[in-house]
Amino acid sequence: MIEVQNVTKIYKLNKKQMEEQKASASMKIAVKNVSLTAQEGEIFGVLGPNGAGKTTLLRCISTLLNPTEGSILVNGHDTVKEGDQVRQSLAFLTNEVKMDPHFSPKYLFRFFGRLYGIPEDVITERQKELFEHFNITEFEDKRVEELSTGMKQKVSIAVSLVHDPGIVIFDEPTNGLDIITARAVTDYLKLLKERGKLVIISTHIMPEAQKLCDRMAMIIQGSCVFQGTLEEALVQTHAEDLEDAFFELYRQTMEVEA
Amino acid sequence: MKVVTIIMRKELYRVFSDKKLIFGLFILPAILVVGMFLLMAALASSLLADWEEHEPTIAVYHAPASFEDYMQEYASSAGIYEIAEKIYHVMEVTDDAELETLKGQIYDGSLDLIVVFPEDFDEQVAGYNGAETIPEVQTFYNPSEDYSQNAHQDVVDQVLEKYRKVLLERRVGDLSSLTIFTIDQTNEESVIQNDNKAQGKLLGSVIPYMVTILLFASAMSLGTDSFAGEKERGTMASLLMTPIKRSQIVYGKLFALMILSGLSALIYGGSMIFAMPLFYRTLGTLTGQELNFSAGQMSMLLVLIVTMVFMYVAAIAWLSTLAKNVKEASTYVTPAYLAVTVVGMFTIFRGDDTTWIQYLIPIYGPTMALKNIFTLELTAGGFLLALLSNLIFGALFAGITAKMFYKEKIMMNA
Hints:
The complex is a heterodimer.
Chain A: E1 2-12, H1 15-20, E2 27-38, E3 43-47, H2 54-61, E4 69-74, E5 77-78, H3 83-89, E6 90-93, H4 105-115, H5 120-133, H6 149-160, E7 167-171, H7 179-194, E8 198-203, H8 206-212, E9 215-220, E10 223-229, H9 230-237, H10 242-257
Parallel strand pairs in A: 3-8, 3-9, 6-7, 7-8
Antiparallel strand pairs in A: 1-2, 1-4, 4-5, 9-10
Helix pairs in contact in A: 4-5, 4-6, 9-10
Chain B: H1 2-16, H2 19-53, E1 57-61, H3 65-72, E2 75-77, E3 80-83, E4 86-93, H4 99-108, E5 113-116, H5 121-126, E6 138-140, H6 146-172, H7 195-233, H8 235-240, H9 246-283, H10 295-322, H11 326-349, H12 356-360, H13 364-374, H14 380-404, H15 408-411
Parallel strand pairs in B: 1-4, 1-5
Antiparallel strand pairs in B: 2-3, 3-4, 5-6
Helix pairs in contact in B: 1-9, 2-9, 3-6, 7-9, 7-10, 7-11, 7-13, 9-10, 9-14, 10-11, 10-13, 10-14, 11-13, 13-14
């Protein structure tokens, strides 16, 4: 279970970063007082346009970043004070977390398995299951750099799941993937949910979220403007689908901001 | 420790499973060093052979009769003389107007030497009564031309000096009456020295400099790739997502780098030690000086080098972690490399009087300690202080690097 409590994340920008991001202020509020709860056995969507603060929020949950204010509990462990325990129970998949292209999927799987302290025979078992599921077995001894983009993504997923985590956080899971690989990934997310895991995904593709997510939070300009099920979103906005519901919420937020 | 070993093994495997890296790190340096020395030896010996083969041409002005008599014993045919197994072409000149033309030839290198005697040289020598001016023999040569420089040296030493002695003997009869005392003419045991220390003085001036630079250079490319490269490739984040302590990642990487840099430096150093005698042997100047370490020297050398690698690797790790990518890391590490080079050069020209505070100065102290091992002048205190310097600064850099691994601004560019 994940409990995000009044989390705010502020980036301090140096001159170079201000130039890069064309920002006029030396502070950037990426996440503004966000609270949400996600439970085991559900796929929870963090939805919003690019730059809304979705990735920052997921990075905070994954311990890669510390919240400036507020706290996050993962299975009761604080992400700042008990980072090691938090990382033991979750997997974080994002385009920024990459596999070393020099090594083979098999080597990487075993290497990360050992880092998680998993016994050798369990690593072998997990490898067999995951590699077969994602059709990696045939390429397990090839270097990652020789694999296609889709296969690389599948290897990343398999390696990240070596420790059979209870919580899987996936930033833009189908971004840049072909239709077949994307389907394999979404199918696996559903399978994880069926096994009682908590899956959190971030996406700006509303039809994908509508199909996958049991509950969702909509983040616009760092703030959480909605949290609930698809039905609740549709009722609240009088919309016919999630995309329309999102745009209605986006319009309302912009009006308030203006 | 188990996790540190896992990280270390992965880093080592990364290098040893890459043929290009193995070639670049371990084989190419050996080939380059040996090849460089062989090339230098070949060039130097061909230069020497060229000097040997050259037959210098010398113009002699107003050669006095006594000189012509003296030179008769070296004459092989008209105008050609053989002195100390070398052929000289000598032309006698009497026309003063020609002197400027011949000086021009010296200047452009087509003539090697001009020797000018006074016109009445024999008369001046014979009529010397103590009150008159001493006759002067003038030579003209071009020191920037090797042939001219060598001809001048040989003719002055082999011909004019001996000719002067012959004339002196004629004047005073017994030359030994002019000798008040000799120095060490029969004493063959004049030199009392520790041979190891003598050869150490030569080796000690160059080897510590080479060691310190090679260790840093070998660690540089590996270190920047291991820290900044992983950040650039996005593979560092996958390590940070595991439940291990971040300091364990740093220490695993540092140990692997120490092994790799040490090995690379060993190959560099080894190939130099192998190639240097080849170089001297080709030149025929090998003096029998070879590395001859006692067990004590050897272990002090080893301990100092190992701790030195630790210090350098930790410093490179710190600078590379600050950078976002390998390119940026290289710009941070290069000034440190220059500092190591300059400090290393300093030790070549410094005397042996290292104070205890100097032994503690990073880079400088341990490099001086290395030098003093060769000259047998390293005290136990000096050794310990140099060791301490390496360990303190190495631990400091390693500690800072480990701390930086927890900074999201540095690790995640946030």
